[in-house]
Amino acid sequence: MMKSPVRIKRVYEAPSDTDGLRVFIDRLWPRGVSKGAFEYDLWCKDLAPSPALRAWFGHKPEHWDGFRRDYDAELRDERAQARMGEVFAAAEGRRITLVFGAKDPEHNHALILADAMNDYARRHRLA
């Protein structure tokens, strides 16, 4: 398998043949996207940040370090780890593309989740 089996892509970018398993990772449906036009294989609301953490972060870059720390802690939870395993099983060895709606390319939960999932893949020898 490839070194980093998980990558990220914005909801508004067109799907491609190299996406593999497309996993939508937001709790809320993206603005301006019709249900019929959006292509994804799984919707993993449970891997998104908790509602309280998302509200606190508010996409404010000055909250980024605290958000990253707290979201990473949420992703180390037993349920989150089990869900990551389910996503890798569903991918059946294909690449996983985490699809998200945030506008900021440098301060969003998809970056943190991709790192956590790539770490999961290394620890479980999936990569």
Automatic annotation (TrEMBL):
<protein>
    <submittedName>
        <fullName>DUF488 family protein</fullName>
    </submittedName>
</protein>
<dbReference type="Pfam" id="PF22752">
    <property type="entry name" value="DUF488-N3i"/>
</dbReference>
<dbReference type="InterPro" id="IPR052552">
    <property type="entry name" value="YeaO-like"/>
</dbReference>
